[in-house]
Amino acid sequence: MKYPLTKLAGGCLALALLAACGEADKALPPEEPVTVRPELLEPYISRPITDDVMYFVMPDRFNNGDPSNDTGGFGGDASTHGFDPTHKGFFHGGDFKGLTEKLDYLADMGISAIWMTPIFKNKPVQGNPVNMTAAYHGYWITDFTQIDPHLGTNDDLKTLVDEAHKRNMKVIFDIITNHTADVIKYEECFPRGSDPANVPLCAYRSKEAFPYTTKGGPGGDAINEGFLGDEPVHQTAENFAKLTDQTFAYTPYVPAGEENVKVPAWLNDVRYYHNRGDSEWQGESNTYGDFAGLDDLFTEHPDVQQGFIDIYKFWISEFKIDGFRIDTVKHVNDSFWQAFAPAIMAHAEAEGIPNFYVFGEVHEPTPERLSHYTNVAKVPFVLDFAFQSATYQLFAEGKGPDVFAETLKKDVLYKPAKGDARSLPIFLGNHDMGRIGHFIRRGNPDESLETSLKKDLLAHALMFYSRGVPVIYYGDEQGFIGDGHDQDAREDMFESQVASYADNDLLGTSKSSADNNFDAEHPLYEAMQRFTMVKRVHPALRHGKMTFLHADSEPGLLVFERTDETTGDTVLAVFNTAAYEASVTLPQFSGPLCFIDGTEGEMNGAYTAPALSWAVYEKTACES
């Protein structure tokens, strides 16, 4: 069955036709259609990112518009071309044509920016015969100059971008500079001719124990005479010209048949990689170690730095896209970003894209750690993992709203070159960690699906009405839950043949992942429409400052105001994360208020909010 949303009752917001408060102060008929008011959006080329709602999509798992490219033009079986729609770790057939076909589905939901997982040509499969998987996710790039043939052609991509722009939607590419596909091997742990099924991990070898100037570590012959190291002060062409011998830690080599698999050609040179073994995810290895075996680029090298600037300038010039999400930012040295980000932003400006949006993935849960990358590394913005961590604690762990309030009160720590924390992309879950629906179910295994749906709606309402740029993870608007993280959170939107996907319950519908899930009447889809429309009408909810008025230390009430500094538009928001009514007395509830969205509470001296509810009120229009 489908679980109905609470309809708007009263207030000054009409879903199809917005009017000034007092002109539409009546209950809406249940058949009233939802419109996301596209006419309120500025043109994509000049629109500030704070006006956008973003959709994060994995093209392979979204919609198959052209079955002829399912195998990417490769011969052989799935171990060669990577296509197996029954296996959660292989390609399933989604592509650019399929995404283009569904642009109206996204626009009608209120999406104004699409962020895609990497689309560049990948090594189709990796791993030994026991753990082999495919590059459907896009993070194993071999050719940075062309798109992956599993997704279509350059013309298909151009059509997608053009059609998105016609709908006033931005297109954002996911890019990588930290690593390439796993091609380089080390003689010490993968001797030539050895059995790939018995390859051990290559332990990380540090700069202290294995310096650049000693062959193979302590006691080895002196090599690379005159090389001064790779610290920022020494990152010059003259210094790196002296780093000629690459056997300081391991003996790297490229297996036969893969010598020229990477593009541009300079990527085939082992000089441009750290070659120190697998990351231990801490200390020096965080930036110098191979990312789960992937070839870790020597991003301190000036040739690598300039090489990636040139690569990504090309994509901006060629397709006039609107932004980059940068993968694995914290695994790259700060000096790389200090050069890369300004060069990319300046190039986009020169190409007539004044609001090019660059944000980095820094998987850190606190503003203290995240802000390093905007303040020191000079990445324009970062994905707000602190916001995600706080919402996780609210809805999966049952923490009080004070956790959320205390996290966002640290917004002053972010000091980007332009803007502030209001331009950070905020999210509830993703393709690596899992979905908000899964977090809610895992943290509350005995509650009903109906209750989980209420919490899911409440979490999304909080994301839309808080400061930041809301990011919807594909499928969340159809109630996807998933079985966990990584591959278990990457279900197909089209009919899935993966057994562990097809048996999943979904929130808000009787469908499963075995069905086609593009239901424009799904309660979560309809909620995204309403949230988007409310944001578009109220400047305070797009870029207003956020002031916390109350936050309980146990599940209960969170109250905040948002005020737009230019127009004076002010809204008051109340969220109750408890499974029971909760009350608070605040002077802000004593003046005139216009109900906008959610479920209206009772005002009898104190404000009483229903269980698991939100309510948003307009202040400014009602004061007269």
Number of strands: 24
Q: Major beta sheet, specifics?
A: 8 strands, parallel
How far is it from the N-terminal to the C-terminal residue, by CA? 44 Å
Number of helices: 16
Tell me the helix content. Answer: 10-25%
Mean pLDDT: 93
Question: Can you describe what's shown?
Answer:
Keywords: Hydrolase, Signal. Residues 1-19 form the signal peptide. The protein has 624 residues and is an alpha/beta fold. Among the domains are: 182-297, no CATH class; 544-622, Golgi alpha-mannosidase II (Immunoglobulin-like, Sandwich), CATH 2.60.40.1180. It has 16 helices and 24 strands. An eight-stranded parallel sheet has the order 14-13-12-7-2-1-16-15. Mean pLDDT is 93; it is low at 1-31.
Task: Give descriptors for this structure.
16 helices, eight-stranded parallel β-sheet, disordered N terminus, alpha/beta, Immunoglobulin-like, 624 residues
Summarize the topology.
Layout: E1 54-57, H1 78-81, H2 96-101, H3 103-109, E2 113-116, E3 120-122, E4 125-126, E5 133-134, E6 141-147, H4 154-166, E7 170-175, E8 179-180, E9 185-186, H5 237-240, E10 252-253, H6 285-288, E11 295-296, H7 302-319, E12 323-326, H8 334-350, E13 357-360, H9 367-375, E14 381-382, H10 385-395, H11 402-408, E15 425-426, H12 436-443, H13 449-465, E16 469-473, H14 499-502, H15 523-537, H16 539-543, E17 545-551, E18 557-563, E19 570-576, E20 582-584, E21 594-598, E22 602-604, E23 606-609, E24 613-618
Helix pairs in contact: 7-8, 10-11, 12-13, 13-15
